[in-house]
Recover the amino acids of this structure.
């Protein structure tokens, strides 16, 4: 999925609302929270194909499909998950047979159609990329620097892995997100999309070398 974060300028959390950034440890509760955040990052696309997108995403995460739980970073405030960032590396593939077993034939076809539209709307992942496929912050935590902090953690992971850049796709209409990514250091490198579906994106990149 592309990245579509509606984010205000980063602010500092109060001491009472200390934020913790940490790896995703799947539990029924955390899977539900993460699934909803990922859905919120691209409501338009999910709503075209599924009546209960949260449940579909939760199933995929539970089976380690679509999004690798090891490549999801969370931001929490107390017991509440307030932000999630999912990333991909080149070479990761999903087994179609595993998808059918997880979703069933009908939802597999829906997911495949959704994935096709997404792939036609955005550019390919390159060698040396850490691609941020989803970044979302809960409505009540926006404007607190959550997205900025998750981006910092993604950059740290990429540097530790010896990768060359962070990349992401963002809707051209999402001005608050564009402002955040520019502030973080991302620059627009290209654009792509499907005009007739109103899905136009900028590919943004942050060089690490």
């Amino acid at each position: 999925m592309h990245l579509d974060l509606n984010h205000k300028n980063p602010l500092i959390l109060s001491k009472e609302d200390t934020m913790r950034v940490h790896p995703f440890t799947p539990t029924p509760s955390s899977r539900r929270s993460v699934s909803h955040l990922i859905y919120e990052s691209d409501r338009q696309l999910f709503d075209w194909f599924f009546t209960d997108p949260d449940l579909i995403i939760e199933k995929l995460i539970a089976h380690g499909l679509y999004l690798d739980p090891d490549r999801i970073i969370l931001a929490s405030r107390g017991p509440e998950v307030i932000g999630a960032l999912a990333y991909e590396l080149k070479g990761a593939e999903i087994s179609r047979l595993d998808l059918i077993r997880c979703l069933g034939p009908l939802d597999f076809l829906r997911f495949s159609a959704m994935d096709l539209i997404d792939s036609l709307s955005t550019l390919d992942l390159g060698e040396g990329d850490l691609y941020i496929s989803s970044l979302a912050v809960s409505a009540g935590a926006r404007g607190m620097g959550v997205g900025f902090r998750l981006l910092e953690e993604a950059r740290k992971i990429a540097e530790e892995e010896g990768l060359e850049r962070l990349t992401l796709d963002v809707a051209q209409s999402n001005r608050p997100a564009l402002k955040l990514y520019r502030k973080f250091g991302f620059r627009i490198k290209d654009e792509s999309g499907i005009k007739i579906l109103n899905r136009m994106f900028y590919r943004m990149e942050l060089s690490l070398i």
